[in-house]
Each structure stands twice: as C-alpha cells, then as structure tokens.
Amino acid sequence: SAMALPPQVCSQLCRRPCYCPWVPPRCPRGSPLVLDGCGCCKICARRLGEPCDFLHVCDQSQGLVCDYSTASAGTGATCNFEDDEEGCEVNGRVYRDGEVFQPSCKLQCRCLDGGFTCIPLCQEDVRLPTPDCPYPRRVEIPGKCCPEWICEAQDQHLLRDARAVTPVLPYPCQEWGTEWSACSATCGVGFATRVSNQNRYCRLETQRRLCLLRPCPALPAPFPA
C-alpha cells in the first residue's frame, strides 16, 4: 500500500517556487508525462516494478501506486497495483488480471496471475503433397495477417489459391487432443505444446502457444567504475 507522508516532510521536499527544466524529459514508451509529487515539474511516470518515491510518482492511469510494503532494508519502494491486484506488462503496456489482448494480429493473449498465455490466431496445420497439389508452399499474402498455402507447379511455376483445392472431408472429424503441457520456462517467456487434430484437414499436429508464468527477476545493476 502507498505510504502517506506528513505535511512537514512534504514542505521539506517541495521547494517553492518551482524550478523546472525548460524542456520536459522524453519518456520511454508506455510512460506518460505527469506532475511530480510536489505538483511542480513534469516527469516521466514510473511503470510497473520500477523504483518510486514521493517525488517520482507511479503511473496512476494504469492503477499503479508506490508500494512500500515489499521494500526491504536498503532498497526503495516500487510501483505496484493498488490492493495487490495482479497484472502483467507487455511491450510497455500494463494489462489487468484476466484481460484479453492482442499484441499482434497473429496472437491473442490473456493476462493471468502476473503472467500471460497466448494462443496463435493463424492455423499451424501441415499440408502434405497431393496429386493435385504436388508442391505446397506457405507464403505471406499482402494485406492478410496469416500466411496461406499455395500450390506451385514445378514446371510452370504457377501459383494458385490453396482454398480452391482444399479437399472436403468425406467424414465428420472426431476432434481429439491432449492437454496443454506445462510452460517450458519457470520465468520469462516459454511455450506449451499439445497434440491435436483440430484443424481444417483433421490431421494430428503439434501445436504451440506462448506462456509466461512470471517475469524473471531483474539482474542487479552493474556497479559504476
């Protein structure tokens, strides 16, 4: 929880009138310009997990407060969610626990207990050669997010849309799949795998999705020479 400072401490830290640099600082991505704790100068708001104090305030627009409860002797407070609410930070943006987001058109992720799991939005099926499509190839299509299968004739080098030759299954597909495996990394980004036939060809394939159980602890800053 945030620690309130008594008025006499505030008056010692805050000088009047305000003396601020002419040019406001350039903030990293995801860190807005805000007034410091004295209400004087524009500073970059501190983000999740970054050090903070009375002057260097946290990004309140993301629901962050300066948390002194976990600060041990000799270390300062850090920005955390109010009421110890779990969240996760991806590409400089903070998401609330349970929030679903798309970092790209190929991935859909969910923030969960301080980490996140992602599933691919593009199919990861495997197309094997067939008589009507002896040389299948997956290519990026301009204007489309997901790559698509095309058929390339070896002698004529003609490309045609794979959807025109997609076989219609003569039988209903009995869906089958294993459970997702545990995350391959105990901290940081890893991946989980499963085997499933839930694709348009009803063929078994190994599917993968990204996962992050918790962020890895930050390495200590090198001691200046």
Structure notes:
- By secondary structure, the protein is mainly β.
- Among the domains are: 1-84, Omega-AgatoxinV, CATH 4.10.40; 88-120, Complement Module, domain 1; 176-215, TSP-1 type 1 repeat (Single Sheet).
- The chain is built from one helix and 15 strands.
- It has a five-stranded antiparallel beta sheet, with no helix packed on it.
- The longest helix is centred in the N-terminal third of the chain and has 7 residues, at 7-13.
- The radius of gyration is 26 Å and the shape is elongated.
- The two termini are 36 Å apart.
Average pLDDT level: 77
Shape type: elongated
Share of residues in helices: under 10%
- Poorly predicted runs of 5 or more residues: 1-9, 155-166
GO cellular component, one term: extracellular space
Family: Belongs to the CCN family.
Subcellular location: Secreted
Pfam families: IGFBP (PF00219), TSP1_CCN (PF19035), VWC (PF00093)
Key attributes of the depicted protein:
TSP-1 type 1 repeat; three-stranded antiparallel β-sheet; Complement Module, domain 1; Omega-AgatoxinV; elongated; disordered N terminus; 225 residues; mainly beta
